[in-house]
Design brief:
Elements: H1 7-32, H2 43-55, H3 58-67, H4 70-80, H5 95-119, H6 127-151, H7 159-162, H8 164-179, H9 191-220, H10 226-247, H11 255-278, H12 281-315, H13 321-325, H14 331-341, E1 351-355, H15 366-376, E2 381-382, H16 392-405, H17 437-486, H18 503-531, H19 535-545, H20 547-561, H21 578-584
Parallel strand pairs: 1-2
Keywords: Membrane, Transmembrane, Transmembrane helix
Length: about 575
């Protein structure tokens, strides 16, 4: 007996399919634009991370995570302990402020020079040269600011912004005088690396400049509309992340850290400042709800990526279900290295989109470096011309840090000895007699997908860990800074003065801190149980091996953005500059 289908049921089914297809397209589009999908680990970075996981103790990892914001916070507090004079007394009476400004510029220049040494390995940037460059640049910057104060008035309006142009010119001239013109010529082999450094600097300066503007928009908005400004923050974060992702494509391995410690650091600081200044429970609830919603979306995307990896693990004949249920924290890295080190043994012929070498040399042992050199001869993985071979700089730059990292003996054989790497002489590219071509193709597809998804999973998890870590430490740093400032004489020059302190606002931020810590712990447990590797080791790996970049971002946010509204910096976004009128009267 034939079954008749009712036309209305067919229409309903078609509508549901169209709706499901539309939602699926929207979800795929959303997933594609996330930071976690904007890149993936290189093989070299996986080797470096695995080396760190096997050498860094848990105590070391915890200390790295806890102490990362401490140097910048300590410097910010020491600067606030330098008692400032009333700006109305004039520029000559505020000599302590000029010392403070000199110290700030000196520190920031030092941070920039350490990054230059990291990104341009062929440039002889010694510690002595860094001290000389920083001293000269900071002295000229302060001299220019004093001259403006004598001619225009004190405080100098937007002194940190106005001094940016002479700062850049002075720095460029001093660098040429220090290193000569040769490294900066068009045909210089260092030009590519210098371009990376310049792009890195421009991106950071652009993002730093946007933060005060967003703060002003919030301050000038009516009280009823401030919640709307808070809702605009995710839009700004999205645009900023896309901008950073595209601008920093040549530093793909560093994108999670660059995005996190610029975009997310500044946005979290903005939320903390808004919650502190308003003291509103509604503002606190709004900030928490927005954070939870976007965190859940990120977790969902990460889980999709992880499920793909684990489905491939279950299909792998070498990894039984019982093994997956009893994995150790290094198992995911172990499997990835087993496949990436032996691509032809897993029927992988070509993966041009997977980078063998990282964007810049990473800390790895000599054994692992030999593995990468052997893999380079197979022509399986892609590479970029700027860093396609292991140079002398690659080895020498990390030789000393590696010895420090080796806190306990590590056997490379645990994840596949050098001898197991397939070479051209014993190539397995021809079909094996005992296996059909269909099975070979299916196995190759699984292995290639496993490599791609696994590298992307590590990239995505690193970004999420960095973001959650930042959302924990920024409110803590902000509250600690405000608590100390409230006890010091300089508080009278901060917005609202001593009367601007609200205990209720501190309680709201403490509530946010508790939420963020819980969120980080949930992510830690999720990654350990389901994704099979240690999240804290991965986080500490970023904080320690990218120390120059991390500390530069933390110092900028802590010693510039935290106190940028103190009267002496002249940051009057109303453009009224009332102190000039008071002086003229």
């Amino acid at each position: 007996m034939a079954v008749q289908t009712h036309p209305e049921n067919v229409k309903d089914s078609g509508a549901l399919n169209r709706e499901s297809s539309f939602l699926s397209r929207v979800e795929n589009k959303w997933n594609a634009i996330q930071v976690g999908r904007q890149g993936e680990y290189s093989i070299e970075r996986v080797e470096s991370l695995d080396h760190y996981c096997k050498t860094a103790t848990k105590t070391r990892v915890l200390l790295v995570c806890i102490l990362t914001p401490v140097p910048a916070l300590a410097v910010a507090i020491m600067l606030e302990m330098m008692p400032l004079q009333d700006p109305s007394k004039g520029w000559d009476a505020n000599w302590i402020f000029w010392i403070r400004l000199t110290v700030i510029i000196f520190i920031l220049t030092c941070m920039g020079m350490f990054q230059l040494r990291r990104l341009v390995l062929g440039l002889p940037v010694t510690f002595g040269k860094i001290m000389i460059i920083s001293s000269v640049v900071s002295a000229i910057f302060t001299g220019f600011a004093v001259l403006l104060a004598a001619l225009v008035g004190f405080p100098v309006p937007f002194v940190m912004v106005v001094g940016g142009i002479p700062f850049a010119i002075t720095l460029g001239v001093v660098l040429v005088l220090m290193f000569g013109i040769a490294p900066f010529r068009y045909n210089s082999p260092l030009r590519v690396h210098l371009a990376k450094f310049l792009q890195f600097l421009v991106v950071r300066l652009n993002l730093v400049a946007i933060y005060p503007l967003f703060k002003v928009l919030y301050a000038f908005a009516p009280a009823k509309s401030q919640g709307f400004v808070m809702l605009l923050l995710p839009v700004w974060k999205f645009v900023a992340k896309k901008y950073v992702g595209r601008a920093m494509r040549e530093l793909e391995d560093y994108i999670p850290q660059i995005v996190g410690f610029n975009v997310d650091y500044f946005s979290t600081l903005f939320v903390s400042v808004c919650m502190f200044s308003s003291g509103s429970v509604l503002m606190t609830v709004l900030a928490i709800v927005v954070d939870i919603v976007f965190s859940l979306l990120e977790y969902r995307e990460l889980q999709t990526n992880a499920n793909t990896v684990y489905n491939l693990l279950r299909d792998n004949k070498n990894w039984s279900k019982s093994h997956l249920c009893n994995h150790t924290s290094e198992d995911l890295l172990t499997l990835l290295l087993e496949v990436t080190r032996n691509p032809e043994a897993h029927d992988v012929i070509s993966l041009p989109n997977v980078r063998l070498w990282a964007c810049e040399p990473h800390p790895i042992s000599s054994d692992r470096l030999e593995i990468l050199k052997t893999l380079a001869t197979l022509d399986v993985y892609g590479f970029r011309p700027a860093h396609s071979t292991a140079s002398k700089a690659h080895i020498s730059f990390f030789s000393k840090p590696l010895r420090k990292l080796q806190t306990r003996r590590v056997s490379v054989a645990a994840t596949g000895p050098v001898s197991t790497v397939v070479t051209k002489s014993n190539s397995l590219r021809s079909p094996r007699a005992s296996v059909s071509n269909t099975q070979l193709i299916a196995g190759a597809d699984r292995s290639e997908t496993l490599i791609n998804q696994g590298l992307q999973l590590l990239f995505h998890s690193e970004y999420l860990l960095v973001v959650e870590y930042i959302e924990c430490i920024v409110p803590i740093v902000f509250v600690a800074y405000q608590l100390v400032l409230y006890q010091l004489p300089n508080v009278v020059y901060a917005p609202g003065g001593a009367e601007g302190w609200q205990s209720g606002a501190v309680e709201n931020i403490l509530l946010l801190i508790v939420l963020e810590v819980c969120s980080l712990l949930v992510l830690k447990v999720l990654l350990e149980r389901k994704f099979a590797f240690s999240p804290l080791h991965q986080l500490a790996y970023v904080l320690e091996t990218q120390l120059e970049h991390v500390q530069a971002d933390v110092f900028i946010a802590t010693i510039i953005l935290l106190p940028f509204e103190i009267n002496h910096f002249g940051m009057d976004f109303t453009f009224q500059f009332e102190w000039f009128r008071a002086t003229s009267e």
